[in-house]
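Handover notes (outgoing to incoming on-call)

Open items:
1. EF-hand domain-containing protein: sequence verified, structure written out, both below. Nothing else pending on this one.
2. Nothing else urgent.
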Amino acid sequence: MGLLAGSTVFLLTLLWGTCVVVGKCDLGPGREAVDVTDTKGFSLTGTGVTTDVQTSYAARIMGLSVIPFIIAQFPKMLKTHHGQRLAMLLALVVSFALVLAYCLYQVFQPWIQRRKLAYAKHKHVISGILRHAQMQSLGRLLNDDGTPNEQVIRKCDSFPLSQLLSVVWPVVRSLAHCFRSCRLFRKIDMDESRSLSRAELHALIVGINFEEVDFDRTDAVDKVMDDFDTSRNDVVEEEEFVQGMRKWLDEARRSVPVGGAFSSKFIHEYHERTRQEHDELVDRSDEAVESVENPGWCIAKAVALLLLGSAAAAAFADPLVDAVHGFSNATRIPSFFISFIALPLATNSSEAVSAIIFASRKKQRTCSLTFSEVYGGVTMNNTLCLGVFLALIYFRNLTWDFSSEVLIILLVCVVMALFTSFRTTFPLWTCLVAYTLYPLSLIIVYILDYVFGWS
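EF-hand domain-containing protein C-alpha coordinates:
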Protein backbone atom coordinates (compact mmCIF):
# COMPACT_ATOMS: atom_id res chain seq x y z
CA MET A 1 0.00 0.00 0.00
CA GLY A 2 2.94 2.30 0.63
CA LEU A 3 4.16 1.61 -2.91
CA LEU A 4 0.73 2.40 -4.34
CA ALA A 5 0.48 5.64 -2.38
CA GLY A 6 4.07 6.61 -3.12
CA SER A 7 3.69 5.97 -6.84
CA THR A 8 0.57 8.13 -7.05
CA VAL A 9 2.17 10.94 -5.04
CA PHE A 10 5.38 10.78 -7.10
CA LEU A 11 3.52 11.04 -10.42
CA LEU A 12 1.35 13.97 -9.37
CA THR A 13 4.00 15.97 -7.49
CA LEU A 14 7.65 15.50 -8.48
CA LEU A 15 7.03 14.28 -12.03
CA TRP A 16 4.17 16.69 -12.74
CA GLY A 17 6.16 19.67 -11.47
CA THR A 18 9.29 18.64 -13.40
CA CYS A 19 7.29 18.36 -16.63
CA VAL A 20 6.08 21.93 -16.13
CA VAL A 21 9.68 23.11 -15.63
CA VAL A 22 11.20 21.33 -18.65
CA GLY A 23 8.20 22.04 -20.90
CA LYS A 24 7.76 25.72 -20.08
CA CYS A 25 7.48 28.28 -22.88
CA ASP A 26 6.77 31.99 -22.95
CA LEU A 27 3.12 32.82 -22.26
CA GLY A 28 1.65 34.96 -25.02
CA PRO A 29 -0.92 37.77 -24.81
CA GLY A 30 -3.73 35.22 -24.60
CA ARG A 31 -1.97 33.55 -21.63
CA GLU A 32 -1.23 30.47 -23.72
CA ALA A 33 2.25 29.00 -24.09
CA VAL A 34 3.97 29.83 -27.39
CA ASP A 35 5.48 26.62 -28.78
CA VAL A 36 9.31 26.27 -28.66
CA THR A 37 9.71 29.84 -27.40
CA ASP A 38 11.54 30.15 -24.09
CA THR A 39 13.10 33.60 -23.72
CA LYS A 40 11.84 34.70 -20.30
CA GLY A 41 13.94 32.29 -18.24
CA PHE A 42 12.31 31.13 -15.03
CA SER A 43 9.60 33.77 -14.82
CA LEU A 44 6.95 32.35 -12.52
CA THR A 45 4.11 34.15 -14.29
CA GLY A 46 5.55 34.78 -17.75
CA THR A 47 6.34 31.17 -18.64
CA GLY A 48 4.41 27.92 -18.41
CA VAL A 49 2.79 25.10 -20.37
CA THR A 50 -0.52 24.79 -22.19
CA THR A 51 -2.44 21.56 -22.78
CA ASP A 52 -5.55 20.81 -24.79
CA VAL A 53 -9.01 20.45 -23.28
CA GLN A 54 -8.94 16.64 -23.59
CA THR A 55 -6.12 16.58 -21.06
CA SER A 56 -8.36 18.29 -18.52
CA TYR A 57 -10.91 15.52 -19.13
CA ALA A 58 -8.21 12.99 -18.23
CA ALA A 59 -7.61 14.91 -14.99
CA ARG A 60 -11.31 14.72 -14.13
CA ILE A 61 -11.34 10.96 -14.75
CA MET A 62 -8.34 10.70 -12.42
CA GLY A 63 -10.29 12.57 -9.75
CA LEU A 64 -13.21 10.14 -10.05
CA SER A 65 -10.87 7.16 -9.73
CA VAL A 66 -10.50 7.75 -5.96
CA ILE A 67 -14.06 6.50 -5.33
CA PRO A 68 -12.96 2.94 -4.39
CA PHE A 69 -10.66 4.36 -1.68
CA ILE A 70 -13.58 6.26 -0.15
CA ILE A 71 -15.77 3.13 -0.19
CA ALA A 72 -13.06 0.97 1.42
CA GLN A 73 -12.36 3.60 4.06
CA PHE A 74 -16.00 4.29 4.90
CA PRO A 75 -16.27 1.90 7.92
CA LYS A 76 -13.09 3.43 9.36
CA MET A 77 -14.57 6.87 8.93
CA LEU A 78 -17.59 5.73 10.93
CA LYS A 79 -15.27 4.07 13.49
CA THR A 80 -17.09 0.77 13.23
CA HIS A 81 -16.02 -2.80 12.42
CA HIS A 82 -19.41 -3.74 11.05
CA GLY A 83 -19.66 -3.98 7.30
CA GLN A 84 -15.91 -3.96 6.66
CA ARG A 85 -15.96 -7.03 4.43
CA LEU A 86 -18.97 -5.69 2.57
CA ALA A 87 -17.11 -2.41 2.03
CA MET A 88 -14.07 -4.34 0.76
CA LEU A 89 -16.23 -6.32 -1.69
CA LEU A 90 -18.04 -3.21 -2.90
CA ALA A 91 -14.77 -1.31 -3.35
CA LEU A 92 -13.32 -4.32 -5.22
CA VAL A 93 -16.28 -4.46 -7.60
CA VAL A 94 -16.22 -0.68 -8.17
CA SER A 95 -12.46 -0.75 -8.85
CA PHE A 96 -12.70 -3.30 -11.64
CA ALA A 97 -15.88 -1.66 -12.97
CA LEU A 98 -13.94 1.59 -13.27
CA VAL A 99 -11.10 -0.24 -15.06
CA LEU A 100 -13.60 -1.62 -17.57
CA ALA A 101 -15.26 1.77 -17.99
CA TYR A 102 -11.88 3.47 -18.52
CA CYS A 103 -10.90 0.92 -21.17
CA LEU A 104 -14.23 1.33 -22.97
CA TYR A 105 -13.85 5.09 -22.80
CA GLN A 106 -10.51 4.88 -24.58
CA VAL A 107 -12.00 2.54 -27.19
CA PHE A 108 -14.91 4.83 -28.05
CA GLN A 109 -13.01 8.12 -27.45
CA PRO A 110 -9.55 7.22 -28.83
CA TRP A 111 -8.07 10.73 -28.72
CA ILE A 112 -5.16 9.57 -26.55
CA GLN A 113 -4.29 6.89 -29.10
CA ARG A 114 -4.61 9.34 -31.98
CA ARG A 115 -2.32 11.76 -30.18
CA LYS A 116 0.30 9.05 -29.61
CA LEU A 117 0.05 7.97 -33.24
CA ALA A 118 0.46 11.51 -34.57
CA TYR A 119 3.54 12.04 -32.43
CA ALA A 120 5.04 8.69 -33.47
CA LYS A 121 4.58 9.54 -37.15
CA HIS A 122 6.17 12.94 -36.70
CA LYS A 123 9.21 11.36 -35.03
CA HIS A 124 9.47 8.89 -37.89
CA VAL A 125 9.45 11.73 -40.42
CA ILE A 126 12.30 13.37 -38.48
CA SER A 127 14.31 10.15 -38.36
CA GLY A 128 13.69 9.50 -42.05
CA ILE A 129 15.02 12.91 -43.01
CA LEU A 130 18.11 12.39 -40.86
CA ARG A 131 18.69 8.94 -42.34
CA HIS A 132 18.36 10.32 -45.85
CA ALA A 133 20.93 13.00 -45.02
CA GLN A 134 23.35 10.44 -43.59
CA MET A 135 23.02 8.08 -46.54
CA GLN A 136 23.96 10.87 -48.96
CA SER A 137 26.79 12.43 -46.93
CA LEU A 138 30.47 12.31 -47.92
CA GLY A 139 31.65 11.26 -44.47
CA ARG A 140 30.65 10.58 -40.89
CA LEU A 141 28.45 13.24 -39.32
CA LEU A 142 29.61 12.27 -35.83
CA ASN A 143 33.04 11.70 -34.39
CA ASP A 144 33.77 8.69 -32.20
CA ASP A 145 32.95 10.73 -29.08
CA GLY A 146 29.55 11.72 -30.45
CA THR A 147 30.47 15.32 -31.31
CA PRO A 148 29.82 16.79 -34.78
CA ASN A 149 32.43 16.08 -37.45
CA GLU A 150 33.07 19.65 -38.56
CA GLN A 151 35.25 18.60 -41.51
CA VAL A 152 32.26 16.87 -43.07
CA ILE A 153 29.92 19.68 -42.09
CA ARG A 154 32.13 22.28 -43.78
CA LYS A 155 32.14 20.42 -47.13
CA CYS A 156 28.84 21.94 -48.07
CA ASP A 157 30.14 23.70 -51.19
CA SER A 158 30.53 20.39 -53.02
CA PHE A 159 27.33 18.66 -51.90
CA PRO A 160 24.48 17.84 -54.30
CA LEU A 161 20.85 18.66 -53.56
CA SER A 162 20.08 15.43 -51.68
CA GLN A 163 22.71 16.28 -49.04
CA LEU A 164 21.00 19.32 -47.54
CA LEU A 165 20.45 17.76 -44.18
CA SER A 166 23.96 16.34 -43.76
CA VAL A 167 25.37 19.81 -43.13
CA VAL A 168 23.11 20.93 -40.32
CA TRP A 169 24.61 20.01 -37.01
CA PRO A 170 26.50 23.21 -36.15
CA VAL A 171 27.71 23.40 -32.59
CA VAL A 172 28.08 27.17 -32.63
CA ARG A 173 26.20 29.94 -34.37
CA SER A 174 29.26 30.74 -36.49
CA LEU A 175 28.58 27.64 -38.62
CA ALA A 176 25.45 29.32 -39.99
CA HIS A 177 27.58 31.03 -42.65
CA CYS A 178 28.04 27.59 -44.27
CA PHE A 179 24.44 27.73 -45.39
CA ARG A 180 24.69 31.27 -46.74
CA SER A 181 27.52 30.32 -49.08
CA CYS A 182 26.28 26.83 -49.88
CA ARG A 183 24.90 26.25 -53.36
CA LEU A 184 22.93 23.34 -51.87
CA PHE A 185 20.72 25.63 -49.85
CA ARG A 186 20.22 27.80 -52.94
CA LYS A 187 19.01 24.75 -54.87
CA ILE A 188 16.50 23.88 -52.18
CA ASP A 189 15.51 27.52 -52.02
CA MET A 190 14.05 27.38 -55.51
CA ASP A 191 12.74 30.94 -55.53
CA GLU A 192 16.08 32.27 -54.18
CA SER A 193 14.31 34.04 -51.30
CA ARG A 194 16.95 32.85 -48.79
CA SER A 195 14.19 31.03 -46.92
CA LEU A 196 12.24 27.79 -47.28
CA SER A 197 8.54 27.90 -47.99
CA ARG A 198 5.96 25.18 -47.35
CA ALA A 199 6.12 24.16 -51.01
CA GLU A 200 9.90 23.71 -50.83
CA LEU A 201 9.65 21.64 -47.66
CA HIS A 202 6.92 19.57 -49.28
CA ALA A 203 9.22 18.85 -52.23
CA LEU A 204 11.95 17.73 -49.84
CA ILE A 205 9.63 15.33 -47.96
CA VAL A 206 8.11 13.94 -51.15
CA GLY A 207 11.60 13.20 -52.42
CA ILE A 208 12.30 10.94 -49.45
CA ASN A 209 10.89 7.42 -49.54
CA PHE A 210 8.80 6.73 -46.42
CA GLU A 211 7.53 3.37 -47.58
CA GLU A 212 7.15 2.03 -44.01
CA VAL A 213 4.57 4.61 -42.92
CA ASP A 214 1.52 6.02 -44.64
CA PHE A 215 1.02 9.64 -43.58
CA ASP A 216 -0.35 12.92 -44.86
CA ARG A 217 2.54 14.82 -46.49
CA THR A 218 0.80 18.16 -46.04
CA ASP A 219 0.32 17.48 -42.34
CA ALA A 220 3.99 16.45 -42.09
CA VAL A 221 5.04 19.74 -43.71
CA ASP A 222 2.86 21.65 -41.24
CA LYS A 223 4.55 19.93 -38.31
CA VAL A 224 8.06 20.44 -39.69
CA MET A 225 7.22 24.10 -40.26
CA ASP A 226 5.90 24.27 -36.71
CA ASP A 227 9.21 22.87 -35.45
CA PHE A 228 11.40 25.22 -37.48
CA ASP A 229 9.44 28.46 -37.93
CA THR A 230 10.00 30.05 -34.53
CA SER A 231 9.30 33.56 -35.85
CA ARG A 232 5.89 32.39 -37.10
CA ASN A 233 6.23 34.21 -40.45
CA ASP A 234 5.33 31.04 -42.41
CA VAL A 235 8.81 30.56 -43.89
CA VAL A 236 11.93 28.86 -42.51
CA GLU A 237 14.88 31.21 -42.53
CA GLU A 238 18.45 29.92 -42.55
CA GLU A 239 19.10 30.45 -38.85
CA GLU A 240 15.77 28.85 -37.96
CA PHE A 241 16.71 25.86 -40.13
CA VAL A 242 20.03 25.51 -38.32
CA GLN A 243 18.45 25.71 -34.87
CA GLY A 244 15.67 23.32 -35.84
CA MET A 245 18.07 20.67 -37.06
CA ARG A 246 20.16 21.02 -33.90
CA LYS A 247 17.03 20.39 -31.84
CA TRP A 248 16.14 17.31 -33.92
CA LEU A 249 19.60 15.83 -33.57
CA ASP A 250 19.72 16.58 -29.85
CA GLU A 251 16.45 14.69 -29.41
CA ALA A 252 17.81 11.79 -31.44
CA ARG A 253 20.91 11.64 -29.24
CA ARG A 254 18.73 11.55 -26.11
CA SER A 255 16.74 8.66 -27.55
CA VAL A 256 19.70 6.62 -28.83
CA PRO A 257 23.05 6.88 -27.00
CA VAL A 258 25.90 7.61 -29.40
CA GLY A 259 28.68 6.14 -27.24
CA GLY A 260 31.40 6.30 -29.89
CA ALA A 261 29.23 4.78 -32.61
CA PHE A 262 29.47 5.89 -36.21
CA SER A 263 26.88 8.50 -37.09
CA SER A 264 25.39 6.23 -39.76
CA LYS A 265 24.75 3.49 -37.19
CA PHE A 266 23.39 5.98 -34.67
CA ILE A 267 20.91 7.53 -37.12
CA HIS A 268 19.91 4.11 -38.47
CA GLU A 269 19.16 2.91 -34.92
CA TYR A 270 17.12 6.04 -34.25
CA HIS A 271 15.15 5.50 -37.46
CA GLU A 272 14.49 1.86 -36.57
CA ARG A 273 13.37 2.81 -33.06
CA THR A 274 10.88 5.39 -34.33
CA ARG A 275 9.53 2.85 -36.82
CA GLN A 276 9.04 0.30 -34.04
CA GLU A 277 7.28 2.88 -31.88
CA HIS A 278 4.95 3.60 -34.76
CA ASP A 279 4.31 -0.09 -35.47
CA GLU A 280 3.25 -0.62 -31.88
CA LEU A 281 0.39 1.78 -32.47
CA VAL A 282 -2.39 1.53 -35.00
CA ASP A 283 -1.05 2.15 -38.50
CA ARG A 284 -3.71 4.62 -39.50
CA SER A 285 -3.98 8.33 -40.23
CA ASP A 286 -3.50 11.10 -37.67
CA GLU A 287 -7.08 12.26 -37.96
CA ALA A 288 -9.01 9.03 -37.51
CA VAL A 289 -8.55 5.60 -36.03
CA GLU A 290 -10.13 3.14 -38.42
CA SER A 291 -11.28 -0.34 -37.55
CA VAL A 292 -8.47 -2.88 -37.29
CA GLU A 293 -8.37 -6.36 -38.69
CA ASN A 294 -9.57 -9.10 -36.35
CA PRO A 295 -10.77 -6.83 -33.49
CA GLY A 296 -11.80 -9.87 -31.45
CA TRP A 297 -8.19 -11.05 -31.28
CA CYS A 298 -7.01 -7.56 -30.27
CA ILE A 299 -9.56 -7.40 -27.46
CA ALA A 300 -8.69 -10.89 -26.25
CA LYS A 301 -4.99 -10.06 -26.29
CA ALA A 302 -5.54 -6.83 -24.34
CA VAL A 303 -7.66 -8.59 -21.70
CA ALA A 304 -5.10 -11.39 -21.42
CA LEU A 305 -2.29 -8.89 -20.84
CA LEU A 306 -4.31 -7.13 -18.14
CA LEU A 307 -5.03 -10.41 -16.41
CA LEU A 308 -1.40 -11.48 -16.70
CA GLY A 309 -0.21 -8.24 -15.16
CA SER A 310 -2.74 -8.53 -12.34
CA ALA A 311 -1.70 -12.13 -11.65
CA ALA A 312 1.97 -11.14 -11.56
CA ALA A 313 1.23 -8.33 -9.11
CA ALA A 314 -0.71 -10.69 -6.86
CA ALA A 315 1.92 -13.45 -7.05
CA PHE A 316 4.82 -11.20 -6.16
CA ALA A 317 3.04 -9.20 -3.46
CA ASP A 318 4.33 -11.34 -0.56
CA PRO A 319 7.96 -11.52 -1.79
CA LEU A 320 7.94 -7.74 -2.27
CA VAL A 321 6.69 -7.17 1.28
CA ASP A 322 9.30 -9.58 2.65
CA ALA A 323 12.07 -7.81 0.73
CA VAL A 324 10.98 -4.40 2.01
CA HIS A 325 10.81 -5.64 5.61
CA GLY A 326 14.22 -7.27 5.30
CA PHE A 327 15.77 -4.08 3.93
CA SER A 328 13.99 -2.06 6.63
CA ASN A 329 15.38 -4.25 9.41
CA ALA A 330 18.89 -4.08 7.96
CA THR A 331 18.92 -0.29 7.56
CA ARG A 332 16.64 0.61 10.49
CA ILE A 333 14.56 2.71 8.10
CA PRO A 334 10.78 2.39 8.55
CA SER A 335 9.41 0.09 5.85
CA PHE A 336 6.72 2.54 4.86
CA PHE A 337 9.23 5.18 3.82
CA ILE A 338 11.16 2.62 1.73
CA SER A 339 8.00 1.68 -0.12
CA PHE A 340 6.78 5.29 -0.25
CA ILE A 341 10.01 6.91 -1.52
CA ALA A 342 12.52 4.41 -2.93
CA LEU A 343 10.24 1.91 -4.70
CA PRO A 344 8.13 4.49 -6.60
CA LEU A 345 11.31 6.12 -7.95
CA ALA A 346 12.50 2.72 -9.20
CA THR A 347 9.20 1.45 -10.62
CA ASN A 348 8.28 4.72 -12.37
CA SER A 349 11.73 5.65 -13.68
CA SER A 350 11.09 4.67 -17.32
CA GLU A 351 7.74 6.45 -17.37
CA ALA A 352 9.33 9.52 -15.80
CA VAL A 353 12.13 9.67 -18.37
CA SER A 354 9.65 9.29 -21.24
CA ALA A 355 7.39 12.02 -19.85
CA ILE A 356 10.28 14.44 -19.36
CA ILE A 357 11.59 13.84 -22.91
CA PHE A 358 8.14 14.51 -24.36
CA ALA A 359 7.69 17.66 -22.27
CA SER A 360 11.13 18.97 -23.26
CA ARG A 361 9.93 19.39 -26.85
CA LYS A 362 8.07 22.46 -25.56
CA LYS A 363 4.94 22.03 -27.66
CA GLN A 364 1.30 21.99 -26.69
CA ARG A 365 0.63 18.62 -28.31
CA THR A 366 3.56 16.88 -26.62
CA CYS A 367 2.79 18.48 -23.25
CA SER A 368 -0.81 17.34 -23.61
CA LEU A 369 0.37 13.80 -24.29
CA THR A 370 2.76 13.97 -21.32
CA PHE A 371 0.19 15.08 -18.77
CA SER A 372 -2.46 12.73 -20.14
CA GLU A 373 -0.04 9.85 -19.59
CA VAL A 374 0.59 11.01 -16.01
CA TYR A 375 -3.13 11.23 -15.24
CA GLY A 376 -3.70 7.87 -16.94
CA GLY A 377 -0.99 6.24 -14.82
CA VAL A 378 -2.60 7.54 -11.64
CA THR A 379 -6.02 6.38 -12.82
CA MET A 380 -4.72 2.83 -13.34
CA ASN A 381 -3.06 2.94 -9.91
CA ASN A 382 -6.36 3.94 -8.31
CA THR A 383 -8.40 1.31 -10.14
CA LEU A 384 -6.53 -1.76 -11.41
CA CYS A 385 -3.69 -1.77 -8.86
CA LEU A 386 -6.05 -1.02 -6.00
CA GLY A 387 -8.41 -3.71 -7.27
CA VAL A 388 -5.67 -6.35 -7.09
CA PHE A 389 -4.78 -5.17 -3.59
CA LEU A 390 -8.41 -5.26 -2.44
CA ALA A 391 -8.79 -8.78 -3.87
CA LEU A 392 -5.85 -9.98 -1.77
CA ILE A 393 -7.33 -8.41 1.34
CA TYR A 394 -10.85 -9.71 0.74
CA PHE A 395 -10.04 -13.31 -0.19
CA ARG A 396 -7.42 -13.67 2.55
CA ASN A 397 -9.81 -12.09 5.05
CA LEU A 398 -7.22 -9.48 6.07
CA THR A 399 -7.84 -6.23 7.91
CA TRP A 400 -8.04 -2.92 6.08
CA ASP A 401 -5.91 -0.55 8.16
CA PHE A 402 -4.37 1.99 5.81
CA SER A 403 -5.94 5.25 6.91
CA SER A 404 -2.82 7.41 6.52
CA GLU A 405 -2.04 6.08 3.04
CA VAL A 406 -5.64 6.53 1.89
CA LEU A 407 -5.71 10.08 3.27
CA ILE A 408 -2.54 11.00 1.36
CA ILE A 409 -3.85 9.53 -1.90
CA LEU A 410 -7.16 11.35 -1.51
CA LEU A 411 -5.44 14.62 -0.60
CA VAL A 412 -3.02 14.65 -3.52
CA CYS A 413 -5.45 13.28 -6.12
CA VAL A 414 -8.31 15.61 -5.18
CA VAL A 415 -6.09 18.71 -4.96
CA MET A 416 -4.38 18.05 -8.29
CA ALA A 417 -7.65 17.02 -9.99
CA LEU A 418 -9.34 20.26 -8.93
CA PHE A 419 -6.21 22.20 -9.86
CA THR A 420 -5.92 20.72 -13.38
CA SER A 421 -9.47 19.87 -14.43
CA PHE A 422 -10.70 23.38 -15.17
CA ARG A 423 -7.70 25.04 -16.77
CA THR A 424 -5.39 24.32 -19.69
CA THR A 425 -2.52 26.75 -19.02
CA PHE A 426 -0.17 26.25 -16.08
CA PRO A 427 2.29 29.07 -15.33
CA LEU A 428 5.64 28.08 -13.91
CA TRP A 429 4.53 28.90 -10.36
CA THR A 430 2.14 25.93 -10.47
CA CYS A 431 5.10 23.54 -10.26
CA LEU A 432 5.72 24.91 -6.75
CA VAL A 433 2.26 23.71 -5.72
CA ALA A 434 3.06 20.19 -6.93
CA TYR A 435 6.54 20.17 -5.39
CA THR A 436 5.16 21.35 -2.05
CA LEU A 437 2.68 18.47 -1.90
CA TYR A 438 5.49 15.88 -1.84
CA PRO A 439 7.23 16.84 1.45
CA LEU A 440 3.82 17.74 2.88
CA SER A 441 2.68 14.17 2.21
CA LEU A 442 5.72 12.76 4.00
CA ILE A 443 5.16 15.03 6.99
CA ILE A 444 1.47 14.11 7.25
CA VAL A 445 2.21 10.38 7.06
CA TYR A 446 4.92 10.68 9.72
CA ILE A 447 2.63 12.61 12.09
CA LEU A 448 -0.33 10.28 11.57
CA ASP A 449 1.69 7.06 11.94
CA TYR A 450 4.23 7.97 14.60
CA VAL A 451 2.48 10.69 16.61
CA PHE A 452 -1.17 9.70 16.45
CA GLY A 453 -0.49 5.97 16.00
CA TRP A 454 -2.63 5.42 12.92
CA SER A 455 -0.27 2.72 11.61
